[in-house]
Write a structure and sequence with these properties.
The chain is of the alpha+beta class and about 200 residues long. It is built from four helices and 13 strands.
Length: about 200
Amino acid sequence: MTGPAAGDGNTLQVSRFSCTPSGVIASSRRWFSAFLLVLALVMAVATLAMVLADRFVPALLAAGVGLVVGMAWRMSRELSPQQLEISRNRMTVQTTTVRFEVPLEGASARALTSEEVAHIRRLASTAGLVAGVGGFDSHLLGEFDLYATDLDHAVLIECGEGRFVVTPDNPEEFLEVAAQSGAKIRGPLLQSEPHE
């Protein structure tokens, strides 16, 4: 946690929680970034080779693929969570490019069990890479949006029809502050209802 924002008697306190990439998500990010970098370099070399050989159509194709690879790299970073903020009755998720709020009044929150974390790892895995961001439908948790940097710190927030899995660096303190901000905290033994 980066700490609460100071305020006077009329100003709401804001508690900020960092989300540091770690574990399988961090290693997946590094591997995917390295893969995209190598692919972009190959496309740059191919483009140069085609230009030097006076083959302009293949050069344009290689340059186009390189551009798509660069856009894929950028898009893979855009929704990565940077920090979470909690103030009275709301949680704010700050990603690289997007900031959105989740109401905490009447919401429930709890740390995920190790079984649920393992389930999310399997659910978010493709070709050995684990995604940290996305929308998923799970038989254990129902539909949820994942904004994760380290699944070992996974916390489930349920508000109305929405479910969010976030991963603050300090989940215990995050849950304490969420409780002070209107969320009902459930213990890990109180499971969500299974969904078909």
